[in-house]
Every structure is written in C-alpha cells, then in structure tokens.
C-alpha cells in the first residue's frame, strides 16, 4: 500500500474504534472542587458515585458508564465554565454532574442550556439554580427548603429573638431570608443579620457581636467543612453557650463528615437537614456499607455523597429508560418524574421546577456509644422549596 492509502486506512480504523467506543459508553462529566479548602466536596461526591457504581455495576442498557472528574479548585465560575466547555466539546459527555458550590452551577447552567446537556446538581443549593437552565435537575436540597423548618421549630420552642449569621453568597442569603420570613410569621424577630465572607471568614468579631446582642439563639448557615469547625470553636471559646445563646442551624454546620472532628463542642446543637448518617432505613444501611467498601479510609459519608449517589441513580434510570441513547429533551422528561427511595428517605423531582421534594428532619447532636451523630427526632414530610 502507498503511504497515503495506508494513512487513510489507519485513520478510518481509528475513527471506527473511536465510534464504537463512543457508542458503547455513557460519559458523565463531574465538575466539583477536588483541591483547595472545598476539596472534600469533590471527594464526597466521588465517594457517593463510587458507592452507587459498586452497588449497581458500571453497565446500564449495555453501555459502560464512564466518569470524568474535573477540579474547579473552589467557587471559581470561570474555571467551572471552562471545564464544562471542555467536557461538552472535547469529551462529548452525555451528562454534566457534580456542583458542590453554587457559583460552579451558575456558571455552567448556560452551557447546559446551549448544548442541551442534562445537568445533575448533586449539592449546589441556592434556590435559583434550577431556574438558570431547562436542563437542570437537582438531587440535593435548597437552602429555603431546610431553613424554613428551622424557624418553625424555633417558634414552637419559644425561641423568639434570633441573630442570623450566614455566608455572604447565594445559599446564605437564601437561608437568611427563608428563616426570617418563617420566624416573623410565628411572632419572632431577627434582631441582627450578620453576613460573613465565603472565602476565609474570620468569625471571632462576629461571635462577640452575637454575644453582645444576647439573643435566644443564633441561626447559622456556613458552607459545610472547615468553616463549621471554626464557628463552633469560637462559639464555645467565647462562652455563648454559658450566656444562654443556643445554636440552631442548617445541617451544613454539623455535617456528618466533619462532626467526629468537631467533638463534644457540638453536643446539643439543633439543625434541620435532609440527610443524617444516623438515618434508620434499609436504604441508608446499604448506602453506608457500599460507601465504606468503595472508599477505604474515606470516613463518614455526608449529604454531598448522598446527593451524588442519588444523582447517579437518576442517571442510571435515564439511561435505562432511553435504552442508552441520550437525548437532552428526552432525558429531562425522565428526570422530571423521578422518584427514589434514597438513603435519606423518599425523594421526588417536582416536574414543574425540576427541584427536589423530600423530608426535612429536625436533629440534635448526640452521642451514640462513643460516636457523635445527628439524631433525627422530628420531621417535615414532602417539603418543597417554600418559594416554589
Ligand atoms: C452551595 O454553594 O450551594 C453550598 C455549599 C455548601 C453547602 C451548601 C450549599 O454546605
């Protein structure tokens, strides 16, 4: 064969192999922080994905599920956007997934819209996220969905005057507004509303302000992880508990993954949330087992791992229903009607908003044996985002 013919034959063969590979795989691009201060978000999601795939296999409708991880390094919209573009254009993914932080999800939404790629949100919890593209379905929570019940509980428990402290970006502002609306409805008052920077907040001066304001309680939303450890440390060190100021919060503050490291400082803290590792159900027992098996040394899974696990269940359901041929609009038609028995309890996607409907639990940090857990003691079933 002449060189040109040889080259053409080789090129044709390569193309055939590539096409066969492409036809045999479903690609899921996972965009999250895998490094920097929010690195645990990516690790938890990856852990949840691995748990799901170890439990249910890596092949659906005859297609291999391929996961491509992309590191945003943190709440950096430009990086998230570039990674999404690469995943769509170069890797030709069938699904975009992940999104621990709201700014990542907001930046990628226009790309999902333009490319008609189903975008599976596994955490990002600002209410408006799902309104930014018709191709988004959320498998985590929204801040208003979990914050309003905290205020309902506060009113019922005679907590009247509250200082709020939230991270100064989408989820924090949502939490502050939803908590306040519900508290005021029940006759309570937010006496001071404090917002702290998302990146590297210094809590000490704010904690002093809370102490000086002498409220019945402080309501807190900070993104899960290091910040919750820092807040609780300051709360104890400055003697707010002794001053009679309770902590009430969304469960991000007592996130299961960092709770063991926070130690006894958190005992008694009341939170509202969609997932606790201590949730008693066969589905959660199976999840905890497969998470541990698939992630040796990975510690306790948290709500982001569960969001990712459920997001994978949804992706598998779409692949099954569409028999392995993923079309954006058809995928959304399936996603809009998904109902799952999640490790957290029953969940459903509201077809009108593509947002999640689920049980929100009231929990108290307690010891079970020598271990610290969020123990559920009350619940709000079928909770929607109150603004939706
Ligand atoms: C978000 O950025 O949407 C976010 C991050 C961490 C949380 C909750 C929400 O714990």
TrEMBL record:
Positions of transmembrane segments: none
CDD domains per record: PBP1_RPA0985_benzoate-like (cd20013)
Pfam families for this protein: Peripla_BP_6
Cleavable signal peptide: 1-22
Gene3D superfamilies: 3.40.50.2300
InterPro entries: BCAA_transport, Leu-bd, Leu_Ile_Val-bd, Peripla_BP_I
Domain Leucine-binding protein: 25-367
UniProt GO BP: amino acid transport
Key words of the record: Amino-acid transport, Signal, Transport
Homology family: Belongs to the leucine-binding protein family.
Stated name of the protein: ABC transporter substrate-binding protein
């Amino acid at each position: 064969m002449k060189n040109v013919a040889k080259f053409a034959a080789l090129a044709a063969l390569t193309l055939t192999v590539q096409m066969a590979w492409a036809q045999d795989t479903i690609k899921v691009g996972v965009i999250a922080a895998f490094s920097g201060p929010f690195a645990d978000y990516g690790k938890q999601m990856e852990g949840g994905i691995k748990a799901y795939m170890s439990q249910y296999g890596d092949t659906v409708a005859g297609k291999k599920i391929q996961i491509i991880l992309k590191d945003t390094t943190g709440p950096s919209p430009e990086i998230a956007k570039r990674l999404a573009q690469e995943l769509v254009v170069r890797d030709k993914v069938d699904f975009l997934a992940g999104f621990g932080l709201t700014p990542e999800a907001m930046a990628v939404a226009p790309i999902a819209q333009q490319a008609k790629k189903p975008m599976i949100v596994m955490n990002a919890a600002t209410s408006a996220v799902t309104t930014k593209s018709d191709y988004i379905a959320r498998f985590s929570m929204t801040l208003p969905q979990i914050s309003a019940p905290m205020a309902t509980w506060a009113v019922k428990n005679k907590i009247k005057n509250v200082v709020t402290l939230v991270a100064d970006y989408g989820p924090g502002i949502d939490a502050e507004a939803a908590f306040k609306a519900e508290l005021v409805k029940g006759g309570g008052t937010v006496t001071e509303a404090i917002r702290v920077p998302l990146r590297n907040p210094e809590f000490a001066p704010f904690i002093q302000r809370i102490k000086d304001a002498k409220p019945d309680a402080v309501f807190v939303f900070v993104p899960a992880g290091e910040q919750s450890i820092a807040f609780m440390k300051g709360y104890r060190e400055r003697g707010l508990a002794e001053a009679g100021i309770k902590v009430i919060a969304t469960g991000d503050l007592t996130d299961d993954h960092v709770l063991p490291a926070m130690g006894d400082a958190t005992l008694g803290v009341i939170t509202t949330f969609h997932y606790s590792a201590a949730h008693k159900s066969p589905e959660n027992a199976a999840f905890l087992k497969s998470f541990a098996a698939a992630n040796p040394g990975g510690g306790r899974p948290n709500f982001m791992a569960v969001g990712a696990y459920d997001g994978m269940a949804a992706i598998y359901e779409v692949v099954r229903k569409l028999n392995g041929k993923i079309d954006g609009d058809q995928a959304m038609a399936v996603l809009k009607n998904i109902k799952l028995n999640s490790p957290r309890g029953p969940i459903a996607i509201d077809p009108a908003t593509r947002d999640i409907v689920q049980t929100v639990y009231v929990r108290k940090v307690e010891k079970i044996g020598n271990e610290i857990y969020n123990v559920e003691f009350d619940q709000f079933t079928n909770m929607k985002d109150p603004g939706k």
